[in-house]
Design a protein that fits this description.
An eight-stranded antiparallel sheet has the order 7-8-9-10-17-14-13-12, with no helix packed on it. A five-stranded antiparallel sheet has the order 3-6-11-16-15, with no helix packed on it. Helix 7 (366-387) packs across helix 8 and helix 11 (539-552) packs parallel to helix 13 (602-616). 27% of the residues lie in helices and 25% in strands. The chain has 675 residues and is of the alpha+beta class. The two termini are 42 Å apart. The chain contains 13 helices and 35 strands. It has two domains: 43-227, Distorted Sandwich (Beta-galactosidase, Chain A, domain 5); 230-673, Glycosyltransferase (Alpha/alpha barrel), CATH 1.50.10.
């Protein structure tokens, strides 16, 4: 779901992000998107209903770089619209629509013509007529076209403007406004074109059993076919595959990789650098915290996305004197009913050194790491400067609110950052480690709310020391530690007893909905199963909980959340949205979609990769030439094989048996299996 900021565009250029300040006014209510078929190959989109016809209503249409290039594309055969019988996604960037047609001369109820439409995000649509008749048919085919050339923000707010007048141009139609143009060409060329109605017309001869096609190409005038930003990554990760006893793992990984690629954008000024957009259709620009989180979870596919994301954000890092030096700016984000909006810039700044440190362990080339170290040092200096003589990292707003989730990010950044900088001879990490130690001690005392059930971590701590006691999914980040050398993990903020209590809470019915982890406990005040961070299931936090619980040894709770996530993915066609309703699972039920959720979303797509790789417990240390395997005990999904991953820049494949035995089937020659 979008942050409470104006709707971003769909361009490849990272959108400017505001600095912390008063919460901006919310945009107009977003139209529902949960039932739409969204084909994505950024910076292009094609958005359709299950009827197949593009009527110009709502969000329907082809989009490119933040503008709707075509809003209406309606097909009639023999003066009739086909009856829609099926609509489904074929891949991340294409959808298939099938309709049937009963001709006026038919004697019976059976249709004689099948109309198939394949729609691609890049602006191509192929319309094919299949004959089931025993006689030759001569059919007039009409395609009615129109566009408003409106920006996506105006479309989403219901103010796109009127359709523009068309002109006949070559083998198609052309539209023009003061700021944009669009050209639709057809192959074969139409027999007739009527500009006043935006109508292209053909006379099609269809022998018995034959098929005939018309292909439309929608392009901003003067441009060629669009090439998705992630196209260059296809070859590198196309081999990523999951197989196993659970049939859901294979389509989940395949669709996750597809969606992640479809959401990649390039920095226009540095086109070799790719980063994931937050999600479609609302957030097709750079959101720093989400981009870093997605790139981190996608590290098993290689380090290229991580490197591009880090370089792009490093160029926008604040420099110079002052307390904000080193900060990576980010917009405000809704934090649920019990906390004010938080600045994602702090989260992004803390994720930066973590992603770099872990990408180095997965095999990022040494020179790339060296080039990014100054930016990581800037992030860690900002952390130390902001904390000052204190212990907790507080919001940079009046009131001094310290969020529990941010303490977890800061603790992990300090430990992994110190490890990274020391290994490269850049700094003595003792100061960072000492502060992290003080934070652990203080957090266990001041962020823990005691009660008769064993207590819980506070969502936040006020400046006067009072805790905000509500149980949220942000507590899952307390279990997210991070990779250190020799296959080890950084220590967590909680001790063993409190980690066990947190595991019970996350695995209990108040938090585990049966479809994943609720963002706010069902027994908390202001719980709303559709609340963005007030009760809905957010896929990213569910994945963090699954991997954190598994790493801490709480396999039962991890397995329950994992199975719920897989079941939800199945109902969504294995294309997980960023969130869905947190209503309790019932026999034979299905999770309720959230009408404003992005689908696909980068963090949700990367989460599919993250949870499956976590089952195998792959912990690489490419600089040391080792990889450690610590699979989840109990093998909750049975036997699992993962192939086409990347460790130390080479293909990596592993298989985990039903008994939890691991076998590396493919790896770089220099890698040794660690203990």
């Amino acid at each position: 779901m979008p942050a409470p900021t104006p709707l971003p565009g769909l361009s490849g250029r990272p959108a400017p992000v505001p600095t912390p300040g008063p919460a901006p006014r919310r945009p107009a209510e977003l139209p529902p998107a949960h039932a739409l078929l969204i084909c994505v190959a950024l910076p292009a989109l094609a958005i359709s209903t299950d009827q197949g016809q593009l009527t110009g209503e709502g969000l329907e249409g082809f989009y490119r770089a933040g503008r709707r290039t075509l809003s209406r594309c309606q097909v009639r055969v023999a003066g009739r619209e086909p009856v829609a019988v099926q609509a489904r996604m074929l891949s991340a960037d294409s959808a298939r629509f099938v309709g049937t047609l009963r001709l006026p001369t038919d004697a019976g109820p059976d249709p004689e013509v099948v109309v198939e439409r394949i729609r691609y995000a890049d602006g191509t649509e192929r319309i094919t007529l299949h004959s089931a008749s025993g006689r030759t048919l001569r059919l007039p085919v009409e395609v009615s076209l129109g566009t408003d050339l409106a920006e996506v923000g105006l479309v989403a707010s219901g103010r796109p403007g009127p359709e523009l007048p068309a002109s006949v141009y070559g083998s198609g139609m052309r539209w023009s406004s003061g700021t944009a143009n669009c050209l639709v060409t057809a192959d074969p060329a139409p027999a007739d074109a009527l500009a006043s109605a935006g109508l292209l017309r053909w006379e099609v001869d269809l022998p018995p059993g034959a098929s005939r096609s018309v292909e439309l190409r929608v392009r901003p005038d003067g441009t060629g076919p669009i090439r998705a930003a992630g196209h260059g990554l296809l070859r590198a990760v196309a081999g990523a595959r999951a197989v196993g006893d659970d049939p859901r793992v294979e389509p989940l990984l395949a669709r996750s990789v597809e969606d992640l690629q479809a959401l990649l954008l390039r920095d226009p000024e540095h086109p070799t650098d790719m980063f994931p957009a937050a999600g479609a259709p609302w957030r097709c620009g750079l959101a720093p915290a989400e981009a870093l989180a997605a790139a981190r979870m996608a590290l098993p596919l290689g380090t290229r996305i991580a490197a591009g994301t880090l370089r792009t954000l490093a160029r926008g890092q604040l420099t110079g004197p002052g307390p904000r030096s080193g900060l990576i700016p980010g917009p405000l984000r809704d934090a649920g009913p019990h906390l004010p909006p938080g600045c994602t810039g702090a989260e992004a700044t803390l994720l930066f050194p973590v992603l770099l440190a872990e990408a180095w362990r997965w095999g990022m080339p040494g020179q790339e790491v060296e080039d990014l170290l100054p930016a990581a040092e800037g992030c860690l200096r900002w952390l130390r400067t902001t904390v000052g003589d204190g212990v907790f990292l507080s919001d940079a707003v009046p009131g001094g609110l310290a969020r529990g989730e941010i303490q977890a990010h800061a603790h992990r950044a300090a430990l992994l950052g110190a490890d990274l900088l020391e290994a490269h001879g850049r700094a003595d990490g003792a100061g960072l480690r000492q502060w992290a130690g003080r934070l652990r001690s203080a957090f266990r005392e001041e962020f823990w709310v005691e009660d008769r059930a064993g207590g819980r971590p506070a969502a936040a701590r006020l400046a006067d020391g009072r805790p905000v006691p509500h149980l949220t999914a942000g507590a899952a980040h307390l279990l997210d530690t991070g990779l250190l050398g020799a296959g080890g993990l950084a220590p967590g903020l909680l001790d063993k007893v409190r980690t066990e209590q947190l595991a019970r809470l996350l695995g209990g019915p108040a938090m585990d909905s049966g479809w994943g982890l609720r963002s706010l406990g069902a027994k908390e005040a202001a719980y709303n199963p559709f609340g963005h961070r007030g009760g809905s299931v957010r896929v990213q936090e569910t994945a963090v909980a699954v991997t954190g619980l598994a790493a801490a040894g709480y396999e039962k709770e991890a397995a329950s959340l994992l199975r719920g996530l897989l079941s939800a993915a199945e109902t969504f066609g294995h294309r997980l949205p960023e969130m869905y309703a947190g209503e309790q699972r019932t026999e034979g039920g299905a999770p309720l979609p959230h009408p404003a959720a992005c689908r696909p979303a980068a963090t949700a797509a990367a989460a599919g990769v993250h949870v499956l790789v976590a089952l195998a417990g792959i912990r690489p240390d490419a600089p040391a030439g080792t990889v450690t395997l610590r699979p989840v005990r109990g093998t909750p999904l049975g036997e699992l094989g993962l192939s086409g991953l990347s460790v130390a820049g080479a293909p990596f494949s592993v298989r985990v048996s039903r008994l939890g035995m691991t076998m590396v089937e493919e790896a770089a020659e220099r890698l040794q299996l660690g203990v």
